[in-house]
Automatic annotation (TrEMBL):
This is Pre-mRNA-splicing factor syf1. It comes from the Eukaryota. It is found in: Nucleus. It comes from Neolecta irregularis (strain DAH-3). One of its GO terms (cellular component) is U2-type catalytic step 2 spliceosome. PANTHER family: PRE-MRNA SPLICING FACTOR, PRE-MRNA-SPLICING FACTOR SYF1. Keywords: mRNA processing, mRNA splicing, Nucleus, Repeat, Spliceosome. Residues 12-170 form the Pre-mRNA-splicing factor Syf1-like N-terminal HAT-repeats domain. One of its GO terms (biological process) is generation of catalytic spliceosome for first transesterification step.
Length: 286
């Protein structure tokens, strides 16, 4: 890195000489920065850039530098002054080359990105943070990632939550709500099937297996065209066998499913079968 002599004044010479003797020691750089504490950002950035070049693994130096650069743009609109904000994004990327195991750097970078409304970029950095950090630190990233996913919604929100519940299946019901809000009925039904087949799953909302089963049936019945690859009839019949005291409601769900699909002959057979419960199933009027 070339040194711009115009940025070095007479009062700086003693600090520069000390750095020539000890360029890889932190304290001389800190003393030099303290000496220049009231100087413009470009003069201090000149020192910081040289410091992080010689001490690229210094957590303290990078934190000081990043904070100072962020303070410089905090009153600037990220859309209007995109290039200035991008410069700081680049600084974060450089810091993470050696400090990728430091959760605080990732968190500050992510918070900075969220202010810029860069959805795709932010999602990629969130994913990189999860890959780089140990599992014990993931909860800190998820505290930012999940609200981001909900605000982004759509495909982004769906993918983020799908990844989250792999390790946090207890949050499956919230994931299902997100899917239903975005009309991902097939994935919602599959998630219900997964938790109903998991003997260890316990509803955080206190719902019984029967209630979850009925919610699954409701999705299947009202969105049959979305259930490609799911044997809805088998699911409902399994529920009839499993919840013998609730057969009436489940038979009604099955009949409604047939009606929705236009399979009226099955409904007629159902109504005329004397061994089934007596239920009045409304037929479509021609």
């Amino acid at each position: 890195m070339s040194i711009d002599l115009a940025l070095i004044g007479a009062s700086d010479e003693a600090y520069e000489e000390e750095l020539l003797r000890n360029p890889y020691v932190l304290k001389p750089w800190i003393r030099y920065l303290d000496h220049k504490h009231d100087r413009p950002i470009h003069e201090r950035a000149f020192i910081f850039e040289r410091a992080v070049k010689d001490l690229p693994g210094s957590y303290k130096l990078w934190r000081m530098y990043l904070h100072e650069r962020m303070e410089h743009v905090e009153d600037l609109n990220p859309a209007t002054y995109e290039k200035e904000w991008e410069k700081i994004n680049y600084c974060f990327e450089r810091s993470l080359v050696l400090l990728h195991k430091m959760p605080r750097i990732w968190l500050e970078y992510l918070q900075f990105l969220l202010k810029q409304c860069k959805i795709s970029h932010s999602r990629r950095v969130f994913d990189r943070a999860l890959r780089a950090l140990p599992l014990t630190q993931h909860s800190r990233i998820w505290k930012l990632y999940l609200p981001f996913a909900e605000s982004a919604a759509g495909e982004t929100g769906y993918r983020v939550y799908k990844r989250y519940i792999r390790n946090h299946p207890e949050q499956s019901e919230h994931y299902i709500e997100l899917l239903l809000d975005n009309e991902y009925y097939f994935e919602a039904a599959n998630t219900y099937i997964h938790i109903l087949n998991d003997p260890n799953f316990r509803s955080l909302e206190g719902k019984s297996n029967y209630e979850l089963w009925m919610e699954l049936c409701d999705i299947c019945v009202h969105h049959p065209s979305e259930m490609t690859g799911i044997n809805v009839e088998q699911i409902i019949r399994s529920g009839i066998a499993k919840f013998s005291d609730q057969r009436g409601k489940l038979w009604t769900s099955l009949a409604t499913y047939w009606v929705t699909r236009g399979e009226l002959e099955k409904v007629v057979l159902f109504q005329n079968s004397s061994h089934l419960l007596r239920l009045e199933i409304p037929l479509k009027k021609e």
